[in-house]
Write a structure and sequence with these properties.
mainly alpha
């Protein structure tokens, strides 16, 4: 193999959105996936499998997503607070926090790799 075929360029890194966008990206993806699946199930149950199923499903999905996304933007902070009230976090449980810190202290360190 000739050296002309071998690229020494590093692959381009994917650019990511800033962390602050997580408050929009999470409900966007969650609402898209959930409404996609739920509207499919609902369409198949009500209209059955027919040549028009795809058209009906996509229409149902679009309408349901238009309502689901803004609803999640409003409701998700409340759901996070309710979850925090029901589920113990490491920050509120000192014993669990100490166990976690101890396990991190005992983990073997990765050797440095020189490039």
């Amino acid at each position: 193999m000739s050296e002309d075929c071998v690229s020494t360029e590093r692959p381009r890194e994917r650019r990511k959105l800033p962390a602050s966008w997580g408050t929009l990206v999470t409900p966007l993806l969650l609402s898209a996936f959930m409404t996609f699946l739920v509207s499919l199930i609902s369409t198949l149950r009500s209209a059955g499998l027919s040549p028009d199923t795809l058209r009906i499903w996509m229409g149902s999905w679009g309408i349901s997503w238009v309502f689901a996304f803004p609803t999640l933007l409003i409701v998700l902070p409340l759901v996070r607070r309710l979850s925090a009230a029901l589920v113990e976090s490491d920050r509120t449980n000192p014993t669990r926090l100490r166990e976690k810190e101890a396990s991190l202290d005992q983990s073997p360190e990765m050797p440095e790799v020189q490039l």
